[in-house]
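Hello forum,

I keep getting stuck at the same step: I have a sequence, I want structure tokens, and every attempt I make locally crashes halfway through. Rather than fight my setup again tonight, could one of you with a working pipeline run this one for me? It's a single chain of 229 residues.
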Amino acid sequence: MEKKLKFPSELAYIFGILGVAAGAAFMTKADYGLSMVVAPAYLIHLKVSEYLPFFSFGMAEYAFQAVLIIALCFILRKAKISYLFSFVTAVVYGLTLDFLLSILPDLASDATVLRLVFYFVGLVSCSIGVAFLFHTYIAPEAYELFVKEISGRFGWRIDKVKTVYDLCSLIAGVVMSFAFFGLWHFEGVKLGTLFCALVNGWLIGRIGAALEHFFEFKDALKLRKFFDK
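Reply #2:
Ran it on my machine without issues. Output:
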């Protein structure tokens, strides 16, 4: 049997945050539709920033994730200290997202090839990031936490739960787009969002399997006990 390489689970956390933030940033610039997971937060950003210009995409992300964490507590009828750490992760992710958006170039609407490249780079980057976050004990952002906790509580396959969650986020994004910007006005939720909803769960599952084939995730620091509470 081929020996697997040891991979620090703490490093998986860093790779995960960078991956999902880069994915959201690239897909935002591509403007073919965001990941359905972040679409609701993006729509909140667009609407609120009409009145509060300082309200960034990253700020909308951790505000929305705070609500999601509260909803998770009600569903599971319990709260954990690790859920608070999840909000901290959401803030770190939001700040990273805003930074990446500030340094990536805006693309012209007729730059079709480059926009497609940005879209697929974003899609794959986001999937890689989520797969890494599923292999760390450090509390992931609320999206992954929600999927991970629901999957563990009811014993469902995590990639299946992820796909269902993504489809629910897609529906929520469409409803919010219509409510905020008018019927049949698609903002943030486009064909790229639908494609992402269909393949994201499967892609994360395949990437996760590949990571487990080559790597053995081990804790480098003795901090797991702080995140298991």
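The chain has a mean pLDDT of 88. If your local run keeps crashing, start a new thread with the error log.
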